[in-house]
Amino acid sequence: MPVTVLVGMQWGDEGKGKIVDLICDKSDIVARYQGGANAGHTVVVNGKKFVLHLIPSGILRPGKACIIGSGVVVDPESLFLEIEQLKAGNIEVGGRLVISPRAHCILPVHKVMDKANENSKGQTKIGTTGKGIGPTYADKTKRIGIPMFYLYDEKKLKHAIGQLIDMKNCLFENYYHSEKLNAQKVFEEVLALGPKLAPYIGDTRQLLRDGVNAGKNILCEGAQGTMLDLDHGTYPYVTSSYTASGGACVGLGIAPNKIDKVIGVIKAYTTRVGEGPFPTELKDEVGSQIQEEGNEFGATTGRPRRCGWFDGVVARYATEINGVNEIALTKMDVLDKMKSLHVCIAYKVGGKTVERITDDVSILERAVPVYREFEGWQAQTAGVTDYAKLPDKAKRYIDFLEKQSEAPITIVSTGQGREATIVKGK
Ligand code: GDP
Ligand code: IMO
Ligand code: MG
User: Fold this and answer.
1) Is 231 a catalytic residue?
2) For domain 104-198, is the CATH number 1.10.300.10?
3) CB 3.0–4.6 Å: which of 36, 206, 225, 273 could bond 73 by disulfide?
């Protein structure tokens, strides 16, 4: 399958990093197509933990080319830190990482705006990661952003920064009532980034085009999850990019008819970080138990993740929106001790039963889940690598999730490491 897109099917943190690391042994190129350092993809290789925010998880497999596409927003500070951390772990980045000159830069001012926006919203805040994602995409859309290629054109850069800072200062002065910025100082700081980023900037489209034409295996690594997609998620409680599989075409410049396969990653339960509707959320001790067993704390911000039951309505929606061909089900082992489990099969909304998410996404705020109960298997699936060795009750649970999701589950993950994985049919 030459071009594969891997997407999160819930609200992020489904274990995309682990699955990318697992399957990219067969890939030539791994490419990120959206998001920025709001992502935190944890990969454990031989007991060693790596957390990737911007660089594709494929970097951990020697020899794989890694691309950051035009749809990604790049915080240089975060990028350099990540490169240093990888080097400290004996991972070579130079010559393997290529960033699109069209990718936009996250500047310190964007991070300041992100936090100021959140503070000004009070009760209605989104609960962003504070990484400057929304303000950077907003400036890109307003056509006042700073794409990488401006860094090599002093005149253009100076003009763009002047315009950008003028607009921001107007907001700082009149809306946020905070200190104004000096455009010349910002210009000098941004200009200095050019030579540092230069070794990594290259023609990502040509690399991908040549790869596609040569039939190479390309894995497009999504960040966040379907329910955080700017258009198709739980707006306004979303991120500012196109997280769904279509985002790969936009953010990498790959034509839709070149995509061969979509793999959806989904947890055996649900989590969400930040604010926004979450119908199957458990605010009781069962939720706390899942949080503890699953170590559900954000890889980027350290915030506790809200936990709840598997939501079949969300799963079906994600299969549909992304065109999921196959599913990787993660974190089965986290449920090993549960006495009983629930799976949401539909919502009750104002007396009506709803089985599919409609365009009126606000129904999720009022949805009361309809559950099917399952007996827990109360046996160890952690580390199991052979499907036949799973307890019957666990198999029944997986079969039910598969039916609810309307796509085949081909991978079952039973632990953090590469080896703790079942590839069904193998
Ligand atoms: P991502 O953002 O989708 O890449 O997911 P994160 O890395 O933010 O969160 C998933 C967490 O679960 C990470 O700490 C993974 O190492 C871990 N993980 C992934 N798959 C499994 C699994 O099957 N079992 C357990 N116990 N942990 C897993
Ligand atoms: P990965 O790739 C989980 C959430 C934030 C917030 C909302 C908007 O690790 O799955 P933003 O900073 O993007 O403007 O915040 O999106 N969010 C994530 N939640 N996993 C992520 O990434 C996320 N990236 C952003 O918590 O609710
Ligand atoms: Mg994550």
Assistant:
1) no
2) yes
3) 36
